């Protein structure tokens, strides 16, 4: 069964706390209200405010005239707004399908680096293949336990501000896969089919295996059963003349779509590909990587999860189209790589929290004394055309990987407790710090996007928070002015943080501007109209050229998310604030001479330290 379900956005959990309570998850989904369509005049007003710090006065006036004309009574804007309101009355969510189709499935860029987020998790204490397989067995059992709770409606319902959050995505995490196409991709989803798959795929040494993880009576396999099967897979995967078939999924989507058609002409290949696509999830057993300094270890491990390290490392151990890929290394490194057209950050966070909790417990089940079938190796018949496709994929992926600079660091001077002690939002604090850090490196502010979850609404995904604001620009321009007093700078800083917090609150209530603007544009296309001039304006292109792709990724553990920039001359910055420290990842492309991940990271560390001194002057700290 192949369907196109509701899809999702990248992982950007909100900076607000999420409470979990045990309840019937499926029943609670119906209690979640529909996502509202914001008022047109409000969105256009906020759009102009967002443009103000980015445009010179004459360009701003030119754009303002276009925006006012678009929104005037009887004009095109109100007509499109009426169309969105009609759509909202007749759909599960007026935006989500459009957003996923536009942002993901129609994108032709490769999935690694450009799209799939990676989560690098705290290193385990094993240091060889034996420990790798023991932990991988526990990991598989933990994910199967989570799936059982999803299927039986026993997953704790999450609440934000006392309101239940939408749970529609959880069943879609399993047995789903992105399928390449010439003009756009689609999602193949099998978990809700009449015969739900009972296997996962395991890849080691570039070779794929189908591993059944349920017994004949429908019970889940125990950890010891799974461990025995992984030992058999390891013994069967020493072949040295293998071809890294998974590399094909790293290609430009149109290129991979053409290769996909060629690959599936053969029945053996088609059966193997279908087994991967239909599997509950994929486990990647990575080979050892070259040892490096402790200082660079975190960056290397994040990169390994993100793209596999290159064609001479573990990149062939991936199927980038697969929704869930758990990566386990021999040195204790591990993480999760997910395809974001189907998976979204908050459900992924819930899954990982469950896995981490489960891994603290001993295996409670005894293994039944029954023989298990040998895991099935997935074979591929490779002709000269497919061989050529693989060679091209190797070259292109190595170019992409070598072009990406990954810098992961742990800022230890303070964590989220510091801004909280001063009545400031930790996320807004860091967002203003990022703009100041960028300004110090490049001499200007830039369009930046941060995302909050819209799971308070049925089928909701995410919304952008745009920065900088005028208040942020005022603070940035004043901060390095020696003529201004500390008190004046502190006041400007508080105003910038508070305004950003207000934007966050508005977005959480479904009153953000970015997705509404996109909806108006797509509604025009839906009605067969020309794209409105307001969206063809230079200012619109400038304001959506996201030079800072950012995301707060709060977690109960010292994990860090990593992904590539959205534009060639941009950065991507993820952060996980803990009580007394903050984990950061910064990425940039080496091909752009203007950007450098290490330089921005250094500027960010320096800026955060100065903001700490702004809140807590050294003299005041000493007096205390």
From TrEMBL:
One of its GO terms (biological process) is carnitine metabolic process, CoA-linked. It holds the Pfam family Carn_acyltransf. Keywords: Acyltransferase, Transferase. Gene3D superfamilies: Chloramphenicol acetyltransferase-like domain, Choline/Carnitine o-acyltransferase, domain 2. It comes from the Eukaryota. InterPro entries: Carn_acyl_trans, CAT-like_dom_sf, Cho/carn_acyl_trans, Cho/carn_acyl_trans_2. GO terms for cellular component: peroxisome. Residues 36-605 form the Choline/carnitine acyltransferase domain. GO terms for molecular function: carnitine O-acetyltransferase activity. SUPFAM superfamilies: CoA-dependent acyltransferases. Belongs to the carnitine/choline acetyltransferase family. PANTHER family: CARNITINE O-ACYLTRANSFERASE, CHOLINE_CARNITINE ACYLTRANSFERASE DOMAIN-CONTAINING PROTEIN. This is Choline/carnitine acyltransferase domain-containing protein. It comes from Gadus morhua (Atlantic cod).
């Amino acid at each position: 069964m192949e369907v196109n379900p509701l899809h999702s956005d990248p992982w950007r959990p909100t900076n607000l706390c999420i409470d979990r309570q045990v309840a019937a998850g499926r029943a609670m989904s119906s209690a979640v209200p529909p996502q509202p369509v914001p008022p047109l005049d409000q969105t256009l007003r906020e759009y102009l405010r967002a443009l103000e710090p980015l445009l010179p006065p004459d360009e701003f006036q030119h754009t303002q005239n276009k925006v006012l004309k678009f929104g005037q009574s009887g004009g095109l804007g109100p007509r499109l707004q009426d169309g969105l309101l009609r759509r909202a009355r007749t759909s599960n969510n007026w935006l989500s399908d459009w957003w996923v189709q536009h942002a993901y499935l129609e994108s032709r860029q490769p999935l690694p680096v450009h799209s799939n987020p990676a989560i690098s998790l705290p290193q385990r204490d094993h240091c060889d293949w034996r420990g790798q397989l023991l932990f991988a067995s526990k990991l598989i059992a933990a994910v199967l336990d989570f799936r059982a709770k999803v299927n039986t409606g026993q997953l704790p319902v999450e609440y934000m501000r006392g309101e239940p959050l939408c749970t529609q995505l959880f069943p879609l995490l399993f047995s789903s896969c992105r399928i390449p196409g010439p003009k756009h991709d689609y999602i193949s989803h099998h978990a809700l089919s009449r015969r739900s798959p009972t296997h996962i795929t395991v890849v080691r040494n570039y070779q794929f295996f189908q591993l059944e993880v349920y017994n004949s009576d429908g019970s889940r396999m125990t950890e010891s059963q799974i461990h025995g099967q992984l030992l058999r897979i390891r013994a069967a995967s020493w072949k040295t003349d293998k071809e890294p078939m998974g590399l094909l999924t790293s290609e430009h989507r149109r290129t991979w779509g053409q290769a996909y058609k060629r690959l599936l002409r053969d029945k053996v290949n088609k059966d193997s590909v279908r087994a991967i696509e239909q599997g509950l999830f994929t486990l990647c057993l990575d080979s050892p990587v070259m040892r490096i300094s402790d200082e660079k270890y975190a960056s290397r491990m994040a990169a390994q999860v993100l793209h596999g390290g290159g064609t001479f490392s573990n990149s062939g151990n991936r199927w980038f189209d697969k929704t869930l890929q758990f990566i386990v290394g021999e040195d204790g490194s591990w993480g999760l790589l997910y395809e974001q057209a189907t998976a979204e950050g908050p459900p992924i966070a819930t899954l990982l929290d469950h896995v981490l909790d489960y891994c603290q417990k001993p295996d409670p089940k005894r293994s039944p004394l029954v023989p298990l079938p040998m895991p099935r190796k997935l074979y591929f018949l490779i002709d000269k055309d497919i061989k050529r496709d693989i060679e091209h994929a190797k070259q292109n992926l190595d170019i992409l990987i070598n072009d990406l600079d990954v810098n992961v660091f742990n800022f230890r001077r303070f964590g989220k407790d510091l801004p909280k002690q001063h009545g400031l939002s930790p996320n807004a604090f860091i967002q203003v710090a990022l703009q100041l850090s960028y300004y110090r490196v490049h001499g200007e502010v830039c369009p930046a996007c941060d995302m909050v979850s819209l799971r308070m609404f049925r089928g909701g995904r995410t919304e952008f928070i745009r920065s900088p604001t005028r208040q942020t620009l005022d603070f940035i321009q004043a901060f390095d002015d020696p003529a201004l007093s500390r008190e004046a700078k502190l006041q400007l800083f508080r105003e910038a943080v508070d305004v950003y917090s207000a934007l966050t609150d508005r977005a959480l209530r479904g009153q953000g501007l970015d997705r509404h603007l996109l909806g108006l544009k797509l509604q025009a296309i839906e009605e067969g109209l020309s794209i409105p001039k307001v969206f063809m304006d230079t200012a619109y292109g400038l304001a959506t050229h996201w030079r800072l792709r950012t995301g707060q990724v709060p977690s109960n553990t010292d994990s860090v998310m990593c992904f590539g920039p959205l534009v060639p001359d941009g950065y991507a910055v993820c952060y996980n604030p803990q009580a007394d420290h903050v984990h950061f990842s910064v990425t940039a492309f080496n091909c752009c001479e203007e950007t450098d991940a290490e330089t921005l990271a250094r500027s960010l560390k320096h800026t955060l330290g100065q903001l700490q001194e702004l809140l807590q002057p050294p003299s005041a700290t000493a007096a205390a």
